[in-house]
Structures are given as structure tokens and as C-alpha cells.
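Weekly structure sync - notes
Attendees: PM, LS, DV (DV joined late)
Agenda: review two folding runs queued last week.

Item 1: First target. Sequence and C-alpha cells pasted below for the record.
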Amino acid sequence: MNNTNFEDYYEDLQVSPNADMATIDRVYRLLAKQYHPDNIATGNLERFQVLTTAHRILSDPEKRAAYDVSYEENRSGRWQNFFQAIPEGKLEADDYRRNHLLSVLYVRCRENPRDPGVGLWRLEQILGWPENLMEFHCWYLKEKGYMVRNDSGGLAITASGEDKIEKEGLAFGKDRLLPETTGNVNR
């Protein structure tokens, strides 16, 4: 499966791949109510359709099992090959980690500027960091104004964060950027 077109239905619904059916249904109902086109304040047809597709796949046991196979294949190789080993024990390690985190958010924003957020759980999986380390670096980057929590609850890079990435460079080469696509590439 082509990574650039892979739909991460768990991220779309903001649930763990280990979520049970009741959780998936509950989260879907909450998000569907928020993004339903009839909701004048927060309605968003495109986001509603993404949520509905994710729920349709994840709420059907057979479709979910088939999707999970593709999900694991995609997840295992998508990000890890972008990153070099972090220089453990050096003072630069924290800055290096923050650059990695901002790089992921930068790529996500390039892929889908309308919905650039990435959930904290997904970031933990992408970067392979423990929760407390992730929370520390997210706190720091939010305080510096390099990232924010967006309306859908995901973390997204700010213009200041993008300026920082442009100045310092991505954690991986520009040749590793995902190609721009015309299709919906929500993760």
C-alpha cells in the first residue's frame, strides 16, 4: 500500500488501535455531532465524511481486521526510517528531539494543511518516545509558540515552528518529504 495515500482511520477518529467497539462508537458519535454539516457553528462536510468512512471500516469486524493488517504494515515503516539515532547523553539531544517532533508536524501540515493536527498517541508511536518525554517536549514547543493544539484536538505546527524548521532544517533531508497529493491524506 502506498504510504502517501494511506488513510489512518484510528487517527481520524482519535482513538487507539486497541480501542473497543463501544469506544469507537462513542467517539464517532461525539465527532460526528460536531462536524455534521447541519451544525452551523462547527459543521464540516469533508471532515464528517472522513469520520463516517473511518467508523464504517472500524465498526465492521471483518473490515477492521483487514484494515489492521495494512495499518500495521504502513505504521511499521512509515516514519522510523526517516530518523537517525538520537545522540544520547548529549546536551543537544533535547533540541534534536524537538526538531524531530516539529519535522513530523511540518510534514503533516504539508500533506494536509486543512487538518494538520496529529494526536499525541500517534506522535508517541511515530517517534517511539515514552509518554513523559513526549509531554515534556510538547509543553516546551507549545510554550515557545512552535506548535498548538488545533480545533480537532491534534497537535499542529505554527508559522513560527515552520520558520524554525526552515532555519534549522528538517530532521531528515528535504528529499524525504512526502510528495504533495491532490487526494485526501488524513492520518
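Item 2: Second target, run right after the first with the same settings.
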Amino acid sequence: MPNSMKIFPLTVITAIIAVLILVLPIYVKYTVKDEIYNQSINIPRKEFAIVLGAGVKKNGKPGSFLKQRLDDSVDLYNKGIIKKVLVSGDNGEKSYDEISAMNEYLVNAGIPQNKIFGDYAGFDTYSTMSRASKVFGIKDAVIVTQKFHLNRSVYLAQQKGINAVGYSSSSKGQRKYFAREWFATIKSFFDCVIARKPKFLGKKVNTSDLTNIKLNN
């Protein structure tokens, strides 16, 4: 077989991979572009805000990114745009607990404890949206995170059957996390294609009840 014939399949595969890397994040962003808000005034009313976890300081207080997300969710609650909050994040180790920090912050900000639901197994955005739909039975929600993370998060929520929009009052981190988010979006797309199962699912939670802060597995 001539060398040119051997090289051709490799060239085609390389070209396909390159196109996917370039096109998929743009496709994901385009499909949800009309569902992204940076001002709360125009956001449609939803039952839930889904607040995605982020870094917590050594003293147990929310880091700057997480604090912004929590402040945004408090703003949505106070304006009557959402009625309840699902806080979802990482509690994979006893020494690290995003959910308790988020819960405490929201309660101190005036949101009643029985309006806050905790998902301790939101180890990544895909898992959060899968569990929000299947475990917590959420049908419609405002996804609250930073702008750089918002399109992918809303896309995943919609792929999991949630009528979702996204909200961020800040564009902080937009450039810093551009490359990481680009490739995370590609992974998220294929997670949806193969219907990847999250690490934990567990029994359904009745979200009309008091806060559930146990790991559902």
C-alpha cells in the first residue's frame, strides 16, 4: 500500500477531531444563547435556583466565586423569581464541605431553611444536573454560576429534561478559564451522548419537604 494511502485515514481522523474541538463548544453555546441572562429583571419565574458549588476557604466560608453565586441566588429569591434553592457541590471528603458552607450562607442571608435543598454528590456539573432531575425532581430552574460556566451548565440541565435558564451578574474569570471550559464543554457533550451515569443517584427526594442534607446514594 502506498504511503499516501496509509496517511489518508490518519489525516481524515485528525481533521474530524479538529472540527469537533472547534465546533462543539460553539454549538453548545448557540443552542442556549437565548436562555442566558446577566440582569435579573428579565428572567422568567422558576421554582428553583440551582447553585453550583465552588471553592470554600479554610475557615469554611465561601470563596469569591461561590459567594457571588450565592448572592445572586439570594437576589433571585428576594425578587420572587425563584421559590427554592438547590445547592450542589463536592463533599467527597469529610474535611471539605461545599454544601454546608452554602447552606449556612443562604440561611444567614434570610432564605428559610425549608426552602434550601442540599446535594452532596454534585461532583461535576453533569452529575449536578442529572441528580437535580432524577433525584430532586426539578422540572424548571435558574442555573446560577459564573458567566464562563453558564452556557455549558444550562445545556446540561436542558439535556437532562430541566426547563432551564442561566443567570450571572458577573463575568469574572471569563478569560482565565476559557481554555478549560472549552474542553469541558466537549466532554459534557459526549457525556450526554453516552448518557453517562453519575457516581451517585439514590432515592428520590420530595422537594416539598424540609431540607435534605444527606448524601443520596
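Discussion on item 2: Residues 118 and 213 are 5 Å apart (CA to CA).
Action: LS to circulate a short write-up before next sync.
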